[in-house]
Amino acid sequence: xxxxxxxxxxxxxxxCAEHGAAVVVADxxxxxxxxxxxxxxxLADALGVEAPHVSRQVHKLQMAxxxxxxxxxxxxxxxxxxxxxxxxxxxxxxxxEARRGIEEVLANWQPDDLRQLATLLRRMLDDxxxxxxxxxxxxxxSTARPGAGGKDDNP
Length: 155
Fold this sequence. Notes:
Blueprint: H1 2-18, E1 38-39, H2 40-47, H3 51-64, E2 67-72, E3 75-83, H4 85-106, H5 111-132, H6 138-141
Antiparallel strand pairs: 1-3, 2-3
Helix pairs in contact: 1-4, 2-3
């Protein structure tokens, strides 16, 4: 699984590089929609990285025209990072490339194999969420199922 995720990460990074961005900040909610303006610290937390890294990347993205810093109406000392229309378009291209890549890889898989993959990915996500202490996604949090990642459950 780690090798597959690494391969997917390399493909996504290559797509980002092809579109002229080191990082495109968008789908932090995991639902296909942009997360909306965020403070750099919130962005760092959401990405699981240190704030200085985010600041450097945001600066690069701002210089490339993918994001802009806008005033926080609730605290004029603070700034939000927000995607520009160019950033939204780049993010959509990257997401589309990722989707097409997955579709191509799975195109010849049998329906039973796809169902098994979906089941195991849901289980893995649930286990990651449980391990991190974060709230589970709405569609999986209410679904208690046997074999959902207990110590005795090994794939």
